[in-house]
């Protein structure tokens, strides 16, 4: 369907289209503003050599947006700590879990603590037997 005359010239001369189409200069200004906002997100205000992030080329400022290795390390250490805690006995919290409760199958206590209970601490079912398990 033709909107009258030449499609290319009619669309390009339309005031609505001209408002929506950004010029190259406007796009460049948007990119620079985005780069500036990105440098403001940087956790440190200076780079190697003491120059500020804003005075560096945009390729250097983009490195400030990359994942923080220190934060990644903290997350890994915290995850490791939580996993080790899960391997600790839920009663004494000092020894590693090494006993499975039968018939429920929960592994949540060490052998010493398992001897002192008759009901599973997780599901409250009666413990009919236990077995030693090797997790490593």
From TrEMBL:
The keyword Signal does not apply. Residues 89-124 form the RING-type domain. Keywords: Metal-binding, Zinc, Zinc-finger. PROSITE patterns: ZF_RING_2. Residues 41-55 have a biased composition (Low complexity). InterPro entries: DEATH-like_dom_sf (IPR011029), Znf_RING (IPR001841). Residues 16-25 have a biased composition (Basic and acidic residues). Residues 1-73 are annotated as: Disordered. GO terms for molecular function: ubiquitin protein ligase activity; zinc ion binding. One of its GO terms (biological process) is protein ubiquitination. This is RING-type domain-containing protein. It comes from Pomacea canaliculata.
């Amino acid at each position: 369907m033709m909107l009258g005359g030449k499609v290319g010239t009619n669309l390009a001369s339309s005031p609505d289209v001209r408002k929506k189409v950004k010029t190259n200069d406007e796009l460049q200004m948007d990119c620079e503003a985005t780069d500036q906002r990105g440098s403001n997100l940087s956790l440190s205000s200076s780079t190697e050599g003491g120059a500020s992030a804003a005075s560096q080329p945009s390729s250097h400022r983009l490195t400030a947006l990359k994942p923080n290795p220190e934060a990644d390390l903290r997350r890994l250490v915290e995850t490791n700590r939580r996993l080790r805690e899960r391997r600790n006995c839920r009663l004494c919290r000092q020894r590693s879990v090494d006993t499975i409760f039968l018939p429920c199958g929960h592994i949540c206590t060490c052998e010493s603590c398992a001897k002192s209970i008759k009901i599973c601490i997780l599901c409250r079912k009666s413990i009919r037997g236990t077995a030693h398990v090797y997790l490593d």
